[in-house]
Every structure is written in structure tokens, then in C-alpha cells.
């Protein structure tokens, strides 16, 4: 993050604008709208700027250096002279005053963002000065998304905030009430001018408010790319009081969760469990029983090798309300991003999803079924047992030349796809030092990857056959 976005209170605060032309005029309008007490300092001040003079603005026709800056909170350098901007910047720094130099970021320590104003709701967009046209385009899109009635809704909430605070002493209860309120018809009522009806509805909901009991959302976070999150997954992540997440949930996905939500990692890795499954079950039950809204965030899909079923059973036994939000499973996401169709009428009509972990009871997988030709086999968590997997499939009839792909960090910018043959599988993993998270795909469809890959380059061994 190049700049930390900050909203500052400028009501009745003294701000100096150096420059009296059109650039200064635009900044002055923003400052006046924010309630600042503005002083304009320039040798020549345009008629437009002079026309703004009043209780909030005064003009001084003088050069910078002829006027004391000691009492100002902010300084705006709106000149087209880098030397003057440098002088202002040096003087402001010496006086511990923040300065913005318009179109000259080298001589400033804060910038003005593009603004979408639905006061009291204000949205700021910035590229740090690196892509102003992009910031403007994003602003245009947000302007279209936010109706003017958002302003009325914000103003209504501001008027009622103290009433809610007096009626509901708990922060979590107040948050719960406002979330329900904003999700209701209030915005439509206000937009239609029905202020009295809105007030009546508000009083009714406040008097009848019953706090939510604890609940759990089992949410699939997908394989890594945050843009693969579902809308419902995002909603749960934003509403949760606690995020209980696996290690496979990417940092980019976690960054989209509510910032003040508690985060608890229950990361698991082969050979190491930071928290056994029984304790994870007990944890989410305990949090829900304490009245928390828990987002149990899992990589991929909760019900595909995510042990979501076990957690649901624990929640049912404890009488906890819960819901499940499916996610893009790794098989679908990683294969698509590697250019590997899991089914293709010329190569595979069947897909099997299996885990590479050995079963606790010692039962062997159904190797004859897994070894059938003209099907796609997707192996989750198969790195450690890849040698056994390769040997058993070949021993039960799968050709040693069957194409395979190992996809590391699938759907993420650092994704790496390594292709070879089934016989080469353990060697490929060792030579390329593949690390978890990684997925193994076995089948004729893998040979399509050299032609269909679109997301990133891949490493192909020379012996891999190409699909016609």
C-alpha cells in the first residue's frame, strides 16, 4: 500500500491554498464543501476564486514566503512551478504541516483521491498518482452503482444512531440491528419520500429487535483466486464476527473478510496438525454458543475433502444453526486455469476425485477402478504418496505413458503446471520441488494443456505426448 487512505475532519480548520488559478479553484471547492477555513495565497487570483470569498474564504495577493504558515493544518500547492512547490514542501515539512502538490507528488506527502460523494457516505478511489485515468474510470462505475438515495439512508442512520446506542448496549447487537435495517426496505422508502413510514418501521424494528443467536457458515473459499469467491461467500465473510480458516485459504481471500473480525487459523499440513479435527469441531460449536457469527472458511469446497460433513454433524449435535456456501473446488479451478478440461468426449467421459492420503483403517483404494483408461483422475493431497500412486496405477493396468499434470498454487498468480507421464510422477515432484498446495491430474486430457493453457506457462517434460 503506497498511501494509507484517511478521512480527515476539516470543519473550521485553517487550510492554505497557494495558487489562484483553475487548479486551485477546483481544490478550493472541495475544501469549502468539507467546511474548511480557506486562505488563498497568490500574486494573481482569478475572478472565479475571488467570487468565492466569504466567511469561509479569504484571498491574499502575495508571494509564498510573504505570509506565515505556522497556524495552518494543511497546505495545498496549486502552482505550475516545481521550484515554488519545492519551497512550499520544504517549509511545510519544517513546520510539521502536511502538504499536497497538485500534479507534483514528489513535493507532497498526501494526495486527493477521486471522490464519490453521497454524504455522509463518501467513497474515495486512488491510484497513488500512478494511473489517474483508471481511478477516474473506477469512480464512474461506482457513481453508477450507488444511487443518490444512499445519501438519505446515511443521513437517517446518523439521526438514529444515538437511539440505537441507548436501546442496545452491546456493540454486536447494534451491528446486528443495523445490518438487518440496511438489508430491509428503508432505502426504497426514503427514495420515495416516505420519511414518516420509514420512521415508523424503524421504531417497530428497534422495539421488536431480538439478537441473533450464534450461527456458523461453512464457506468455500475456492482454490485461491479471490475473484472465484461467490457473492454469498463474500457476504458471509463481511458479516462474521469470527473467521476460522484453513491454511489453504489464500492471503488475498482473507484480506476480503471484515477487518475487525477475529481470525483463527486452524491450518493443517501433511504430517502436522495445528488443531485436530475434533478440536476444530468443538471450537466452532463453542464460538457459536457464545453468540458469535462464525465463518468457517475452507479452501475449495467445504464438502469435497474439506471435512465439512463432520463439522455439520457436530453442529447438528449441539443444536447450532448453520448453512453451507459451496465453493469452486480445486479440481475444477486448477484444471481450468491450467487449460485441462476434466472431461472431453474424445478422451475422458468420467472424472474421479480421490485423496492421496492413506486411509486410517488401512483399507486400500479401489485400484482397478482408479486405473481405468479414458477417465480423468484428480488427486488431492497426493504429493507425499505419489510414488505409491504411480506404481499401483501402472500395476493395475494404467499405461505408464498416461499424461499427468502437477498444478502448484492453482489459480493464483504464482501458479505452476508441470506435465509429464505417470511413470515420471514421483520424479517430477522431486526434481521441481513441488510444494503444497498442489493437485495431481492423471489422464489423456492432460495432453491438451500445451494447446489450451491460457493463464500461465507450464513445464512440460519431452516425453509427454501431445493430443492431436
Automatic annotation (TrEMBL):
EC assignment: 2.1.1.107, 1.3.1.76, 4.99.1.4
Modified sites of kind Phosphoserine: 127
Region Precorrin-2 dehydrogenase / sirohydrochlorin ferrochelatase, annotated ranges? 1-202
Q: Which InterPro entries match?
A: 4pyrrol_Mease, 4pyrrol_Methylase_sf, 4pyrrole_Mease_sub1, 4pyrrole_Mease_sub2, CobA/CysG_C, NAD(P)-bd_dom_sf, Siro_Cobalamin_biosynth, Sirohaem_synt_dimer_dom_sf
The entry marks the following residues as binding S-adenosyl-L-methionine, namely 223, 299-301, 304, 329-330, 381, 410
Q: In which pathway does it act?
A: Cofactor biosynthesis; adenosylcobalamin biosynthesis; sirohydrochlorin from precorrin-2: step 1/1; Porphyrin-containing compound metabolism; siroheme biosynthesis; precorrin-2 from uroporphyrinogen III: step 1/1; Porphyrin-containing compound metabolism; siroheme biosynthesis; siroheme from sirohydrochlorin: step 1/1; Cofactor biosynthesis; adenosylcobalamin biosynthesis; precorrin-2 from uroporphyrinogen III: step 1/1
| Keywords recorded for this protein, A-Z | Cobalamin biosynthesis, Lyase, Methyltransferase, Multifunctional enzyme, NAD, Oxidoreductase, Phosphoprotein, Porphyrin biosynthesis, S-adenosyl-L-methionine, Transferase
Q: Name one Pfam family in it.
A: NAD_binding_7
Q: Which GO terms describe its molecular function?
A: NAD binding; precorrin-2 dehydrogenase activity; sirohydrochlorin ferrochelatase activity; uroporphyrin-III C-methyltransferase activity
Q: Which residues belong to any copy of the Tetrapyrrole methylase domain?
A: 216-425
Domain called Siroheme synthase central: residue spans: 123-144
Query: Catalytic site residues?
Result: 246 (proton acceptor), 268 (proton donor)
Q: Which domain of life is it from?
A: Bacteria
Which residues are listed for NAD(+) binding in this entry?
A: 22-23, 43-44
| GO biological process terms, semicolon-separated | cobalamin biosynthetic process; methylation; siroheme biosynthetic process
The reaction(s) annotated as catalysed by this protein in its Swiss-Prot or TrEMBL entry are: precorrin-2 + NAD(+) = sirohydrochlorin + NADH + 2 H(+); siroheme + 2 H(+) = sirohydrochlorin + Fe(2+); uroporphyrinogen III + 2 S-adenosyl-L-methionine = precorrin-2 + 2 S-adenosyl-L-homocysteine + H(+)
Where in the numbering of this chain does the Sirohaem synthase dimerisation domain appear? 151-206
Residue ranges for the region (Uroporphyrinogen-III C-methyltransferase) are 214-468
Family the entry assigns: In the C-terminal section; belongs to the precorrin methyltransferase family. In the N-terminal section; belongs to the precorrin-2 dehydrogenase / sirohydrochlorin ferrochelatase family.
Q: Could you tell me what this protein does?
A: Then it catalyzes the NAD-dependent ring dehydrogenation of precorrin-2 to yield sirohydrochlorin. Finally, it catalyzes the ferrochelation of sirohydrochlorin to yield siroheme.
Record's protein name: Siroheme synthase
- Species the sequence originates in: Alkalimonas amylolytica
- Tell me the gene name: cysG
Amino acid at each position: 500500500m503506497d498511501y494509507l487512505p484517511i478521512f480527515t475532519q476539516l470543519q473550521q480548520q485553517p487550510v492554505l491554498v497557494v495558487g489562484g488559478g483553475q487548479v486551485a479553484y477546483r481544490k478550493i471547492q472541495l475544501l469549502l464543501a468539507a467546511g474548511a477555513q480557506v486562505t488563498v495565497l497568490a500574486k494573481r487570483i482569478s475572478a472565479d476564486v475571488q467570487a468565492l470569498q466569504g466567511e469561509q474564504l479569504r484571498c491574499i495577493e502575495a508571494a509564498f514566503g510573504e505570509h506565515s504558515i505556522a497556524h495552518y493544518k494543511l497546505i495545498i500547492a496549486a502552482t505550475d512551478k516545481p521550484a515554488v512547490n519545492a519551497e512550499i514542501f520544504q517549509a511545510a515539512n519544517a513546520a510539521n504541516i502536511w502538504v499536497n502538490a497538485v500534479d507534483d507528488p514528489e513535493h507532497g506527502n498526501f494526495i486527493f483521491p477521486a471522490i464519490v460523494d453521497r454524504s455522509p457516505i463518501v467513497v474515495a478511489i486512488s491510484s497513488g498518482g500512478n494511473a489517474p485515468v483508471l481511478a477516474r474510470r473506477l469512480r464512474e462505475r461506482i457513481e453508477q452503482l450507488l444511487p443518490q438515495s444512499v445519501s438519505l439512508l446515511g443521513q437517517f442512520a446518523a439521526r438514529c444512531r444515538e437511539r440505537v446506542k441507548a436501546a442496545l448496549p452491546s456493540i454486536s447487537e447494534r451491528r446486528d440491528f443495523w445490518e438487518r435495517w440496511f438489508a430491509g426496505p428503508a432505502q426504497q422508502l426514503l427514495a420515495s419520500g416516505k420519511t414518516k413510514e420509514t420512521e415508523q418501521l424503524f421504531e417497530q424494528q428497534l422495539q421488536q429487535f431480538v439478537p441473533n443467536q450464534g450461527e456458523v457458515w461453512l464457506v468455500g473459499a475456492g482454490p485461491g483466486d479471490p475473484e472465484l469467491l461467490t457473492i454469498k461467500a463474500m457476504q458471509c465473510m463481511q458479516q462474521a464476527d469470527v473467521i476460522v480458516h484453513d491454511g489453504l485459504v489464500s492471503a488475498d481471500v482473507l484480506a476480503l473478510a471484515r477487518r475487525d473480525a477475529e481470525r483463527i487459523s486452524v491450518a493443517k499440513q501433511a504430517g502436522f496438525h495445528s488443531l485436530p479435527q475434533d478440536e476444530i469441531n468443538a471450537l466452532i460449536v463453542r464460538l457459536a454458543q457464545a453468540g458469535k457469527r462464525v465463518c468457517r472458511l475452507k479452501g475449495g469446497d467445504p464438502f469435497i475433502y474439506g471435512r465439512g460433513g463432520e463439522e455439520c454433524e457436530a453442529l447438528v449435535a449441539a443444536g447450532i444453526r448453520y448453512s453451507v456456501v459451496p465453493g469452486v473446488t480445486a479440481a475444477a479451478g486448477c484444471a481450468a486455469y491450467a487449460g485441462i478440461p476434466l472431461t472431453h468426449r474424445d478422451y475422458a467421459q468420467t472424472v474421479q476425485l480421490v485423496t492421496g492420503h492413506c486411509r486410517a483403517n488401512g483399507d486400500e483404494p479401489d485400484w482397478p477402478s482408479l486405473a481405468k483408461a479414458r477417465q480423468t483422475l484428480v488427486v488431492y493431497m497426493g504429493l507425499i504418496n505419489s510414488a505409491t500412486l504411480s506404481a499401483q496405477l501402472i500395476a493395475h493396468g494404467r499405461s505408464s505413458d498416461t499424461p499427468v499434470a502437477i498444478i502448484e498454487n492453482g489459480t493464483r498468480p504464482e501458479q505452476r503446471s508441470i506435465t509429464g507421464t505417470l511413470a515420471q510422477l514421483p520424479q517430477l515432484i522431486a526434481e521441481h520441488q513441488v510444494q503444497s498446495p498442489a493437485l495431481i491430474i492423471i489422464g489423456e486430457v492432460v495432453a491438451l494443456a500445451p494447446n489450451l493453457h491460457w493463464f500461465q506457462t507450464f513445464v512440460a517434460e519431452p516425453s509427454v505426448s501431445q493430443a492431436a
